[in-house]
Amino acid sequence: MYQYKYVRITVQSQGYGLINGTSYGIGEYHQIIDSCAASGWRYVGYIPVKQRGTGHIEEMDLIFEKEIYKHLRNNEG
Asked: In the chain, what is the greatest distance between 2 CA atoms, to the nearest angstrom?
């Protein structure tokens, strides 16, 4: 059985270029993933939770999982 943890992050607009439009950047996601991994959580993906009409993601949840009841699973086999 797994337990899940969700961490909301915001995508920041970083500037505007005449040819390429607005560029977007995600803040400190490396730090979040490393910190959660150090606590036994495994990064498994993300879900966009706020999106512009243009398709640009403004907020997303990073998803982490941790196995729980590992000892029960090992005793079943």
From this structure: 62
Closest CA to 66 of 15, 20, 3, 24: 3
Q: Quickly count: other Cβ atoms within 10 Å of residue 12's Cβ.
A: 11
For the record, the structure tokens of 66 come out as 């941790």
pLDDT tens for residues 39-72?
999 999 999 999 888 777 889 999 999 998 765 6
CA–CA dist 75, 31 (Å, integer): 36
Backbone angles phi, psi at 61, to 5 degrees: -100, 125
| pTM of structure | 0.73
